[in-house]
Description:
Blueprint: E1 2-11, E2 14-20, H1 22-27, E3 33-37, E4 45-53, E5 58-64, H2 68-74, E6 81-82, E7 84-89, H3 100-105, E8 108-113, H4 117-129, E9 135-140, H5 149-155, E10 158-163, E11 170-171, H6 174-183, E12 190-194, H7 197-209, E13 214-216
Helix pairs in contact: 4-5
Amino acid sequence: MYPIVRREKLADKIYLMDVKAPRVAQYCEPGQFVIVKIDEEGERIPLTICDYDREEGTITIVFQTVGASTERMVSLQEGDAFEDFVGPLGCPSELIEMPIEELKKEKILFVCGGVGTAPVYPQVKWMKEHGVDVDVIIGARTKDILILEDEMRKVAANLYIATDDGSYEFKGNGCDKIKDLYAQGKSYTRVVAIGPMIMMKFVCLLTKEMNIPTIVSMNPI
């Protein structure tokens, strides 16, 4: 069994949990995921690793309630446990495979939206720990559904918030903010976009026009 040691509501229908899973925490890298199962009858749910603490042996997951299984997960409290917590699975971010000195020469921009902020955070944190400065755009429909803003500010060289309704900082979406940054004289050699499929699609269409190599997450598929 894998006990839940912390449970927190981040925004409407978005929750964070720290789960005791020492083996996963020992070997995971930014960009990987786990598959969780509440009990014998539960569905297998893939979730990206949001953070990890090797010393404490914990994995942080963030999820949004979208169906019966995630609704059941919401009912779990601190002290409850998952029956299965399998991982680390998938490929780590290709950026962490690059030589550090090469990474430091890059100008990297992460663009995330919704719960896509969760898998971006460990990658940006890893960059910070290895002396690599990166910029981050978090996009959201409105300020109320922003997540992990404070955590991201601690690890990003520059954090930009874009809200569709203009309720917080820049009014517009992630693509609008990229255009705004370039209008201010900023430039990037690489973009990483993680979030809703439609967001990643339009970021790629824009960065293709701008001739910026771009990485996206295929987890939704």
